[in-house]
Amino acid sequence: MPGPRMATGAKPKSIRKTLLRIGGYVVGQKMKFVLVVLFVLISALANVAGTYFIRPLLNDCIVPMIGKPVTAESLQPFVRMIALMAGIYAVGVLATIAYSQIMVRVSNGTLNAVRNDLFNKMQDLPIRYFDTRTHGELMSRFTSDVDTLREAITMGVTQLMSSALTVAGTFIMMLFLSPLLTLLIVGMLVIMTRILKTIGGRSAGNYKKQQKAIGMANGYIEEMIEGQKVVKVFCHEDKVRDEFQELNESLRQSATDANFYANVVMPIMGNLTYVNYAMTAAAGAALVIGGRMDIGSIASFLQYTRTFSQPITQISQQLNVVLAALAGAERIFEVIDAEPEGDDGCVTLVNAVRNEDGSLTETEHRTGTWAWKYPHSNGTITYTQLNGDVRFNDVTFGYDEKKTVLHDVTLYAKPGQKIAFVGSTGAGKTTITNLINRFYEVNDGEILYDGINVKKIRKDDLRRSLAMVLQDTHLFTGTVRENIRYGKLDATDEEVIAAAKLANADYFIRHLPQGYDTMLTGDGSNLSQGQRQLLAIARAAVDNPPVLILDEATSSIDTRTEALIEKGMDKLMYGRTVFVIAHRLSTVRNANAIMVLENGEIIERGSHDDLIRDRGKYYQLYTGQFELS
Amino acid sequence: MFRQLTPYMRKYWWAMVIAPATIIIEVLVEIRIPILMAGIVDQGIPGKDIGYVMKTGAVMVLMALLSLVLGTVSSRFASIAGMGFGSEIRRGLFNKVQEYSFSNIDKFGTASLVTRLTTDVSNVQMAFMMVVRMIVRAPVMLVSATVMAYYINSSLVTVFLAAIPFLAVMLAIIAVTAFPRFQAMLKKYDVMNGSVQENLISIRVVKAFVRSGYEKEKFKNANDRLMKASVRAEKILQFNMPIMQLTMYACIVAIMWYGGGMIMAGSMKTGELISFISYVTQILMQLMMLSMIFVSVVMSRASAGRIAEVLSEKPDIADSGSGKDPAVKDGSVRFEDVSFRYQQSSEDNILSHINLEIHSGETIGIIGSTGSAKSTLVQLIPRLYDVTGGRVLVSGKDVRDYRIHDLRDAVSMVLQKNVLFSGTIRDNLKWGSEDASDEEVEQACRAAQAHDFVMSFPDGYDTYLGQGGVNVSGGQKQRLCIARALLKKPKILILDDSTSAVDTATEAKIREALRLNHRDITTIIIAQRITSVCDADRIIVMNEGEINAVGTHEELMQSNEIYREVYDSQQKGVAD
């Protein structure tokens, strides 16, 4: 059985709030929205008024003329009336064109704004947020949730307005034509809404069941197709087929019910309208015979009975879509409302030149020398050169309150030193590097960067001074050149090539079909793992930062390939402070200091030779007596 | 491409027939209502015949109710047909994928297959249901309303006989113009989604390089392009409504004009005129419906095409074995001049001219760098791929002559990218052998060094694993996968880099257990670590799709440069 899965389209929690908020986006495009409202109004009025003209036409122009000689003069009121009617209708059509055309822009503008807000917000969310959610989950905010919202906005907004106006206008005209018949219509309307409500209730219940069944079936599809190769190796095809058919069948049943209740609205409402029509015709005829109504009124009224119920049917049919859209919108707003990554740092990174007396002065242009600009509370500003000196003083950290991951970690890395972390998964290696660049904030203790507490440094500037190469390379769709340039957006072609040469990547890049302009797609799937890794290293190199973090940068490469990359790595590391996390111990041997981590504590530290000599945990790890995973 | 989907309508064909059939009756009943109304106005009122009016009114109500019942029935069957069709397609697709070979799966990619089975199926099924409901209704309504109108007044019919072609042509123009624009929009949509996905996957890179501003700008461009394309497509579609209104209003005005004249001249009655207008409204509404169906069918065409692709894909491994001589007798394997490439079209062979003989019960280690085709080589044994040249023999018989089921039962393979499924540990292990007893399960787990950690969980073998086995560590997952493979009691066991996350000491114990309890099993171990293979009977060194050398650890250390290099890179600096 596949695990439970949240089906999309559950009920929205607060309809009012969400509606208002979507309304805010729509109304945000003020002028256009005002125009839409105006034109919808005109269109609806024209529709109501035009139909009304059937009455005076029949009563005043046609019926009195029956059997009389037709002359140009006697026809004049008829012609004028027809012309007026045509004119009103023409205005109505023009208004419809106008509002539908503007509305396309309004709705797409709204969706565009929602998407932009959503994406921009995601960029500002802390890493912590992404830890607790899958990519698929966040992606579905962009796909299914925005999609259902699109449907609701494009159809909903104008339909709602024009329906409401049409219903109101029609109702007034009906009252005007015949209060008695209107009473009959209202009576029928009460019955109709009763029926609608019953169907709506059933429909919602079945819709929920259907969504659950869809979730189960899709979950199963996903799991089995992901594991398809295992299914084949174990010859499990038949069993999987049967299990799926069970889920598929229950989906079919619930979907049949759900769709039945959704579909049945149209014939029921349509034919109830006919019942209305029939009763109006009979009752109206009775009134005419009794001399209390005229033929023209019946004609108009009958046409109105149709325009009256149609919008109600339409709205009721869209109800599920609208509810699903609101639930989707709610999920979108949840992301937009999430707490962004805070930043209260005031220390910034600036270009500097060293004066003859050894002090630093800030400049505009790139000098290759960087300095931390520290504005003190008393108004003075001090400059400290960026060197890459990192110190941890009694750092304690936990991803949540209850569980501490790092206990009292103290360590230092002087500029140009290479520090390595080893230890099993969950020992806290990656956590340490994530604290340096402030993906997370320490709970206790402090981290000093060139003597400045990292909490005081603006995050963007802090991260710009560090470069990271991760185990998963993550290249972007674009050319090789663009991917390297990601490390420094204004890098010249020469700088890009220099970085590639430094990373030993230049050779293979030149042998690609279009060299540096070869397009990479799907996370660089047209390259080998080793080549991707080299590009990631070049990307980090072009930025030329004083501090480098290599988080399992080579662990998915076999040792022989690694030997090829090694030279590039060595060149890259030269003269920088480097933090290395490695699965494979051969990569960390030449570090200035190796920290062995276990359960968030540094249990051993020293050079490779020291640690081997001590015959401790590191020795055990190195000789393969201890599991690293 | 829709033709390929027709077989899936077969199971629920009755619903597909009943739904439109009831609709036809419904329409025929419904269509008579306005003309009855005309009778009320033209006979009941002038004759002041209340009895007639009431009787006719009652008939009209009854007819409307009858039509309501028919409409309900029809909705029910339309739902059955639509959802049944969707369910059959989903089943067809899923079963088809079960027949796929590895290379078929590689060709589509799992993510794409999942989308095709979910989103695409639901698109097609909704369009189909709409067609079942409307495709008969609209034309029947159209024709019968026209007939009724003709019956009322044959000369006035000309008005909408002129209007219909106009409307039809306009709607067709709209649909035809809109389709390519929608396709263009969908492409932009894919681009935008792609960039979001890329961004989410790489969020750490984005943050580490402080590129969120750049990413926002990039997204904004994609988003704006999507908006432009989508406005371009939708604004065409938005002309449906006004054109429809225009035609309807023009018809009403024209009918009032000509009809009014006719009434004045006495050749038409007032009630007839009113019902005539009613028919015109009806007819034009149906045309509108037809255009909506047309649009939705056109929209679902892309999805239907993607489904058809999956269905028409030929599984490239055909099960041609006779099954007469089913058993794989022993665990010997022979490669005879085997060559392989993933695509017929590609020029380079992944494997070329491999000759190799593995004896039953032997333990073989395979070592080589990434891309040296180690995995490819062993995947030919259980026929996960078919050779493109030469042949592979298991137990002295070409693998293509076995029934696939028999072959894979005898060859147990632990894949490099392995998967545990949601369910208990026991459920997962029983994939290897469904009727395995608890003792057998435990025995396999002991051999794979998994028993102890399984027992350390509060629920032991009944511990529930989430999808993908998320609640066990990498090394534990690998050991469970080995246990699962062992339960099959295979003749040949292949471990494709399946102990990479297991520590060397535990790994050694697994090998020891295999050696002691499963002497008769031919074991093939692919590994990165020299320690994983050094005590094998023979070690194969692979390099760029060819066998570079075969020998024992000692022999290779002496004679093979690659092997020595790998050894050095791993052992350098270990204090002795």
UniProtKB/TrEMBL annotation, chain A:
UniProt xrefs under PROSITE patterns: ABC_TM1F, ABC_TRANSPORTER_1, ABC_TRANSPORTER_2
Statement: the UniProt record of this protein carries the keyword Transmembrane helix: yes
Localization terms from the record: Cell membrane
Annotated ranges, domain ABC transporter: 390-624
Taxonomy, superkingdom: Bacteria
Its membrane topology: Multi-pass membrane protein
Pfam families: ABC_membrane (PF00664), ABC_tran (PF00005)
First-listed, main subcellular location of the protein, grouped into a coarse class: membrane
ABC transmembrane type-1 domain span: 34-324
Keyword Membrane in annotation: yes
Gene Ontology molecular function, alphabetical: ATP binding
Alphabetized UniProt keyword annotations: ATP-binding, Membrane, Nucleotide-binding, Transmembrane, Transmembrane helix
InterPro entries, per the entry: AAA+_ATPase, ABC1_TM_dom, ABC1_TM_sf, ABC_transporter-like_ATP-bd, ABC_transporter-like_CS, P-loop_NTPase, Type_1_exporter
Bilayer-spanning residue ranges: 33-58, 78-99, 165-192
Record protein name field: ABC transporter ATP-binding protein
Gene source species: Caproiciproducens faecalis
Automatic annotation (TrEMBL), chain B:
ATP-binding in keyword set: yes
Gene Ontology molecular-function annotations: ATP binding
Name of the molecule in the record: ABC transporter ATP-binding protein
Start and end residues of each ABC transporter domain: 333-569
Membrane-related topology note: Multi-pass membrane protein
Domain ABC transmembrane type-1, first and last residues per copy: 17-299
Keyword line: ATP-binding, Membrane, Nucleotide-binding, Transmembrane, Transmembrane helix
Organism in which the protein naturally occurs: Caproiciproducens faecalis
Transmembrane segments: 12-40, 52-73, 134-152, 158-179, 246-267, 273-298
Stored Pfam families: ABC_membrane, ABC_tran
Locations listed in the record: Cell membrane
Superkingdom of origin organism: Bacteria
